[in-house]
Structure prediction request, 648 residues.
Amino acid sequence: MSDVIQIEPVSRPVEQAELLTLDGVAVERHGKQLLHPTRLTLGCGEKLAILGPNGAGKSTLLKCLAGDIRDYAGHIHFDQQPLTALNGNHRARRIAVMPQHAEMMFPFRVSEVVALGRTPFTDEIVTRHWQERAMQLTECWHLRDRRYPSLSGGEQQRVQLARVLVQIWQALENATDNHLLLLDECTSALDPAHQHSIMDAVNRFATSGVGVIAVMHDVALAASWADTVVLLKNGAVMYHGDSRGLTDAQLLADCYDLPIELAKRHAASNALWM
Amino acid sequence: MTTASADSVRSNTTDNNDSNSSTSDSSTPIVNRQRLLWLLLLSGLGAGVVIALCWGPVAISPSQVFDSLWSLLHGDAIAGSNDWVVRELRLPRVLLALLVGAGLAVAGVVTQGVFRNPLADPGLIGVASGAALAAVAVIVLSDSILFFWADLTGPLALPLAAFGGGLLVTWVMYRLGTWRGETQVAMLLLAGVAINVLTGAATGVLTYLADDQQLRSMTFWSMGSLAYGRWPEVMAMSLFILLPVLLCLRYGRALNAMLLGEQVAGHLGLDVQRCKRWLLAAAALMVGAGVAVAGIIGFIGLVVPHLLRLIIGPDHRLLLPMSALAGGLLLLVADTLARNVIAPQDLPVGLLMALIGGPLFLSMLLHQVRGRMG
Prediction:
């Protein structure tokens, strides 16, 4: 990647078309409002972190974008067209989703699991070199002949990320279409060193123009990684803006119901991560 | 097959040690193993068919067998009693064993893939006994309550009823055993026990309504036998089993993706609900058709995919066609043994399969419960 373009969130070109727009998206289940009407935009190459306490609606929001929830109110536009206009296969060719965890009882080899990422294109064989590079990028190349069920949780997570990245690897090579990467707490089982190397791998895609939305629990990691953050509480957006918002102690205290003293310390540590 | 699986374990360890080899290098032994297995299965099928046609209470020479097959292909009339035995008794039974075995093995692969668990055998989770109950109900009640059904469907009454029973149980098991897209194995197997008890009780009630002739055919249902296979059954089975098998072969890639979970399969672009409906209906049809003609023959759907996964891995694009061949071969071998070990008596092949499959299932269960799959 010689032509790496660092995209600054503040100075993002105005003429840059929005990759994703959410307009009044809301989800209701059994009379309970899981997600209140939400407005959100994401540009190409933008890195957005979704934060919030447990049950705030982070996963619900992600599921709307991933196509798991289809009966949401409001509109989602992806690449200038309604998300619902894409059928399953076409969506999978543009939007890759990293699940929180994926267990498997069957003894697939790691390389076979990664190859499953090419299912939407049915080109597992001709994209071997992509799969190899994806495994190297997520540091699981040395595991390629191991059986997936025998791996540790962190190793499985890295293999899953390789599978997800290989699904949209064409975004790095010959991108004519825009792509979106959705991550649901993809670093929850990783040690700090792997967390940062994995987020670096994700950044390679962002610099190639892939929009990335990551649900995160680790506020400090979000502060160091994201361009913009969304703070959710009780299904409503409390804050949407620059990641510098995470240095605001009062905001953290309100969002996570933290004592202000603790929130101040978090805010100070977040400022260090910027 | 046991030696082959031991080989696979040995070559896996060598693959792991040799960490410098690239993907293509380390996959070569796997490709060779696949070729060898295809060769073994096809030649095994050829040899098995000839042996099954020759071996029996009446010993028939291979040359006589080939003569009979030749004259059958040319549509010649039956000449002599040996010719009749080959063409009207043994050949339909052989073909039936191949078809039913293939159907049961593929149904096993499919249910295990959809339920995402290698223990989900259609027999164990009650699909086969549901199909058998429906078939028994048709046998016993076709003169009375179910007269309209027998009247409506004619000669297909039995396979269709068995299909319906199997489909119903499959659907119930899916509702019971799956919670938020995750299959609970314990729930699935325990619900299978409950379904087996229920259908057993219902079958027991039906025995009180049955006459002597019906009782005899019901005993045959519960143990499983191919002894009643003739050409009409073979014709019906080739429709009810070959079509679903061919349908399932197209879903290899989809099943692979579904092993990652239904949500992930959806993210990979599959219409998961549609795939699941087609696959489970095909499995119920294959099991139901098998039960209708041969009664309950368990464990083929468990044994065959398990052994094949040990040798070639869990890739469904290979597993499905190979299971069809290996399932047919296994049931053919078991049936040939069953009708010869206590000849001229016919040992129900279902009993034989249960003797082989029961211990294997227990060992798989232990393996899985102790978390050492893979």
Notes: The first strand of chain A starts at residue 18 and ends at 29. The longest helix of chain A spans residues 192-207. The two ends of chain A are 25 Å apart (CA to CA).
